[in-house]
Write a structure and sequence with these properties.
CATH class: Alpha Beta
Radius of gyration: 18 Å
Number of helices: 7
CATH superfamily: Flavodoxin domain
CATH topology: Rossmann fold
Number of strands: 7
Order of helices and strands: EHEHHEHEEEHEHH
Oligomer: single chain
Number of domains: 1
Length: about 210
């Protein structure tokens, strides 16, 4: 049975354009995968903890040497990693904040990237240990950071997330950039006209 893991980031709830596009993707994905399951982790409501001393001590200790505090600190990391490993497709919907990922998404990433669990280090360098899932990244932004834009290079979020996912073994990553949301805010384009072509792209990615 196919499975989709949807990671939502925006704190704006139903008003969020990244969430709206993600919902379009999820509905199209479900229609194309009869009986498929969708698991959602809402980082705005389930805000991840930050990596702390107990987390670090536990992550770099043998399981038999971990204290109860270490194991408690790693519990969320264990859950996040298990969700990703169980998925056929990982969908991340996020706004861009100051050219980078929001803090809650960075915290999620820090729980996902774990030595000996999602990546290994050897004589030949690093190796991702998650195999199987593909990923789709939907990014909304006030400006236009798409290909050919004079500010395309300001987008540090997209290459970073793609690099991190590849680092843990998820190398097939599709990206939907949904820029120029400021045009809606300033009345230059309606939300419906802005969303229409992006919804079609989301549907196409969901059924590819």
């Amino acid at each position: 049975m196919a499975s989709l893991l949807k990671i939502d980031v925006s704190p704006r709830g139903d008003a969020s354009y990244s969430r709206q596009l993600g919902q379009t993707f999820a509905e199209s994905w479900q229609a194309a995968h009869a009986g498929g399951t969708v698991t959602t982790r809402d980082l705005a409501k389930q805000q991840p903890t930050y990596v702390d001393l107990q987390w670090i001590a536990g992550a770099y200790s043998k399981p038999e040497d971990q204290t109860a505090e270490n194991k408690s600190a790693l519990k969320l990391s264990d859950d996040i990693i298990a969700e990703v490993k169980a998925a056929d497709t990982v969908l991340i919907t996020t706004p861009m904040y100051n050219f980078q990922v929001p803090a809650v998404l960075k915290a999620w990433i820090d729980h996902l990237v774990r030595a000996g669990v999602t990546f290994s280090m050897g004589a030949d360098g690093y190796k991702g240990l998650i195999s199987g899932p593909k990923a789709v990244l939907i990014v909304t932004a006030a400006g236009d950071y798409g290909a050919g834009s004079p500010i395309e290079s300001y987008d540090l979020l997209t290459p970073y997330v793609k690099h991190i996912l590849g680092f843990v073994g998820i190398t097939e990553v599709e990206v939907l950039k949904a820029g120029n949301t400021a045009g809606i805010q300033y009345g230059k384009i309606s939300a419906e006209d802005w969303k229409k072509p992006l919804d079609e792209k989301a549907k196409s990615l969901a059924t590819a």
